[in-house]
Amino acid sequence: MLPSHANAQDADRTHVAIAALLVGLAAFLLYGATLLPGVDFGDTGSLKTTAGSRAITPREGYPLYFAIGGAFDAAARATGSDPAHALNLASAAEAAGALALFVMVGVELTGSILAATAAAMLFAVSYTFWSQAIIAEVYALHALLLLLSLWLLLRWSRGPTIGRLAAFFAAFAIGFGNHLSMILLAPGYALFLLLSAPHGWRSMLRPRILGLALSIAALGAAQYLWNLHTLWTLPQPPASLVEALRTFWFDVTKSDWRDTMVLTVPDSMVSDHRAMYWFDLRQQFGAIVPLLAVAGVAALSLENWKRALMLVLLYGVNVAFAFNYNVGDAHVFYLPSHLFVALSAAPAIAAARRIGRLGGPAFALMLALYAGSRAVHDFPALDRSGDHRPLDALRAITAGLDDRTGIFLVDMNWQNANGLSYYTRAIRPEIAVARLRDVLLYAPALIADNLAIGRRVVLTERARQDLVDSYGPLIDVRPDGNPPPTLTAVVDALPRRARYALCLLKPSRDFAADPDDLTRAIERLSGGRRSSLPAGDYVALAGLAGEPPIAVAASNRPFATQVQLDGIPIEIRMESWLAADTIRRMGFGHVIVNRRHTLIVERGVSFVAFDRDGTPFQTGYWANLFEREQRYVVAPQP
Predict the structure, then answer these.
(1) Final residue in a domain of this structure, among 382, 410, 427
(2) Do 505 and 426 fall into the same domain?
(3) The model's pTM
C-alpha cells in the first residue's frame, strides 16, 4: 500500500528540505549553464522592455512578474550588467524554486522523498519547461505559484486549520498577479476543498470562510492597482472610474484575443490538435511516462481518492483549455498539464514498495536515470548559452545609427519590434526610433525637417513600403548600402566539400522564401545533381558542398534523422508542430553536430556550414525573423 497522506509527516522534514534544496540547486545550475545570454524577440523582448518601468498598463498585465523582474532589472543596472540577462536569470531562479516545491508536493502526496525527487527530475528536464526556464517568460513563475498553492492545500487537508486555509487562499490569490490562467486551477481546488472539509462541504460555505476567501482575493487583486493607476498617467486618461474599470477589464483579460482565440479551434483541426498533443507529450517525457502517470493516479486513488480526483481535474481542465486555445504558441499552455503528468508519476514509484523493501528505491533510481538520459539527449538542443542571434540581428539593422546623425523609422514583424524596443531602451538608447505608422500622417514634414539639419532618415523594408504606398514619388527612397547576401551567394562562398545542413520549414504567413534563389543554391550545393527539394512541411538536406547530398529527408510531420558527414555524426531534429506553432522560442528544430548545438532551425530557410567540431563558420536565415533585412534611406531633395 502507498503510505497514508498523514504519513507525509513521517518523512523527516530535514531530509525533505535537503532534497528540495538539492533538486532546486541542481536545476538552477542546469538552467544557468543553458541560459539565453541576452535579448530575445517576441513576448520575451516585450517583457524585458517593460520590466523596471514604473508604469505598467493593464494591457501589459503581470504585476507580480514585473515587480520581481523590476528588482532583477535594478540589480543588473546597479552592477552594470545586461538587464535582459538578469530577467533570464530570474526565470532560472523561479524554475529552481518551482522544482524545490515540486519535491515538497510529491512528498505530501506519497510520503516518499525518493519518488518525489525522481518525479521532480523528470519535470525539470521536460522540453517545454526547460525552454521557458532559460528565457524571460512568465511560465516558470506560474509553475512556482501553482506548486506553492498546491502544497499549502495538501498541508491543509492533512491538518485543517484556519491559518493553513488562509495561507492557501493567499498563495492562490497572489498567483493571479503573475498569470490569470491560475483560474484554471479553481475547479480542482474548489472540489477538493468541499470534499476534504473536516465538518462537511457546507462548512466551507460558512460566512467566516467565505469572508476570509473574499478578503484575501481582494488583497490579491490589489496587485493590479498598479496597472489601473497607470491609466491616469496616459496622454488620454479615462473620464471616469467606470470608464477606467471598463478599459482595465478589457485590456487585462485580453477580451479581444479571447473572443477570437478561446474555444475557436475549427472542427477540421481537431484531429490535428490531437496529434499535436500526443507529439507534445512525447516530446516532454517519451511514451512510457504518460502510462506511468496513469498508474500513479490509480495507485493514489486507492490511498486517497480525493487527491487523485483533484489531480485528474487539474490536469483535465488545463489540457482542455490549451487544446481549444487557438494561438501560435499553444505548446506553452500545455505546461501545467506536463507538471501534473510528472507529479502523477510519483505515486506509481512509491507504490513499488509493495514488491519489496527495495522496490521503491529501485524504481525511483530507474526514473531518475531515465530523466538523466533525457537531459543528456536534449541538452544540446536546449542549450541557448551561445545564442546571440537576436542581438546580432538588432546590431545589424541599427548599425551606424544614433540620434545625432539620423532617425530610424520602422515597421517590423511584432516579434522583431519587441526586441528592437528593448535594444533601443536598454542597450542603444542613443538611437532615435519611431514606428512609421505613428508618424505617417506628418511623415513628409518630419522627413524634411530632419534632412534640413543634416540627419539621415533610415527605414526598414516594411516602413519603406508603407511610405511609398502613402506618398508615392513625393519621397525618394533608396537602398542604404548593399543588399544582404542571398542563399546562393552564401553557398558560392563555401569551400568545396564544406560540411553543411540546409533546412526548409513551411514559412509563416508573413514571410515567403525565394524559390529561384533556393533552386540555384541547391544546384550548387549538390554539384548540379539536384535542383529541388522533396515536398513536405519539414525538409532537410545535408552533405558536402559540391557533391551529391548525403541525406535528404522530408515530411509533413516532425522527424529526426542522423547522418555521418565525412565521419562526423550529425543529428537533425524537427521539434515543432507547424500547423499550431508560429512561435517557438527554442527554435522549430535543431542541427546537432558531435553533441554540439550547431544550428537553431527556424521556419523558412535555415542554413549552416561547420567544421569538424561542429563549430559553424557560416550561418544564414531567410524568410523568418532572423533574415538580414535591407535598410533604406530617404534621399535629400535637390
Answers:
(1) 382
(2) no
(3) 0.93
